[in-house]
Predict the structure.
Amino acid sequence: MVAAAYQAFYQQSLDQPDAFWREQAALVDWQQPFEQVCDFSRPPFARWFVGGRTNLCHNAVDRHASQRPDAAALIWVSTETGQKRVYSFAQLQREVETLAAILRAQGVQQGDRVQIYMPMIPEAAFAMLACARIGAIHSVVFGGFASHALASRIDDATPRLIVSADAGSRGGKVVPYKPLLDEAIQLAQHKPEKVLMVDRGLAPFERVAGRDLDYAALRQAHGGERVDCVWLESSTPSYTLYTSGTTGKPKGVQRDVGGYCVALAASMKHIFGGHAGETFFSTSDIGWVVGHSYIIYGPLIAGMATLMYEGLPVLSGRGASAEPDAGIWWQLVEKYKVTVMFSAPTAIRVLKKHDAAFLTRHDLSSLRTLFLAGEPLDEPTARWIAEGLNKPILDNYWQTETGWPILTLARGVADDSPKFGSPGVPMYGYRVKLLDEATGEELHGAHQKGLLAIEGPLPPGCMQTVWRDDERFVRTYWNGIPGKQVYSTFDWAMRDEDGFYFILGRSDDVINVAGHRLGTREIEECISGHPAVAEVAVVGVADALKGQVALAFAVLRDPARAATPEQAQALEGEILKKVDAELGAVARPARVRLVTALPKTRSGKLLRRALQAVSEGRDPGDLSTIEDPSALEQIRAALGRT
Ligand code: AMP
């Protein structure tokens, strides 16, 4: 059981939401007070803090710059390039204003979209905050995505301008961004007017005359210009962030200004326990939701310094005999006195391969809590890191759609102890339900498996809609349960007798590779574009390190293309290369197995779960509807091959 103090807090958030959220809203500055806490007159669409005017950049930067101008705001460390930079709140404000002035000079106005395709460099943070400042809607695309994935996001967001850089770097290897961006713009129907290029000097690139702009030159030209924050009505869109679903077309998760600002400020206080003047370190990437909420906005809104890290969790040893350094993060914790850290289970599993001694080599006395999220946290990993650090490890479960945790423990409210294997209990504001998928009935008993759903209105900070597609928002998230309009998370879960939840996996075709959410359909569409492939199925299978990996099963148009093992291997290599080039290495399946049939029902529906079960060496369950039972035998045989 969680403490009575949290139960009362949670109950108040459900019973008296107006009073509850009014109190949370006082954590942020409003230029104009709101008239209504929540307007849910058009369900499932919710508007929070109606009529209030605020600005995310003001709350993240200006209000701290005016009170504590010299306090650290953004600490950037790149072990890839050996660079470090620390910006105080006053310096951050100047950089953001300069970039805002550049955007304005290029004609970017309130409501325009600005796409951000960048590595983990400070300019990415300036760009996001500059957009927030002037009311432009930013849409960050993860730098690990390649040209086709980027092109489809450009076409959906239709940006006026794109901010990018010459290259990122991974494990000491330069990863050029510009050629992928140029190709994406070529592929896209929509052509942005301008591309603002940050040149890190890592990879020479071609400039498109009249379109590509040089950030360094414009920074000189606009340095010192003042650009005031635009006060935006609370439900004005602040950003979109694409996420994968069951179709090949990614969804633009759209968030507001005021609700998001309040939700993050409240989460910093009640969940993450971060205080102004301290340092927050999230190891995620700005391309993901954790990067938005807990590298950029959350810590800054709380007046904390945020540590932005470009590099791997384990540094390869320099020199032939040198050992890899698995202590870099803990060195940073010591150096910058990090108090709150946020990472993902896969990263911890990577560290776990190394001697635990490196965890205690540094002074970690500043660190209070390590939060892990994005994928299931297995018990051995949780125990290993909890014992190694001797700090509380808190799992937290949420989604791109929600923007902040749905399930965890609010230790700012009550000092509850986590249970291994469970992210915790519903957070304030979330009316969490477990439902029977077939009947829609609520499951009240302990240990019953159901779909995890949330009754509307979703609390502040959650998605408002799918960008430019209200109908898709309703159809995708709110119409899945018979007889009820509730938000579906698409996750299976159960609850124990103490009210702790356990996440049991996705109910749709979304897979989770190293905490990265990928749609199997997007990968399938890419592979089926290969001329040799007639049909393909991609499933997620359990993996000891990454949680899950994608596995592809392809049926060839002409089996003679892979008559010999060498031909099969060459073809597999070609297909994987295609995925790398179009979607990015992040989406690359672990293997492509060539088969002559896929398991299907008599009506032609792919038996994904059976395919996944067999791939994981499990019993495929009821096969009464299968058209050709030998298809699964073939899959088994293909898996037996190396
Ligand atoms: P994303 O939108 O990329 O954050 O992915 C969200 C999905 O990741 C959720 O729907 C879950 O399937 C999974 N997920 C996120 N956090 C956790 C967690 N703490 N435990 C288990 N699964 C998680």
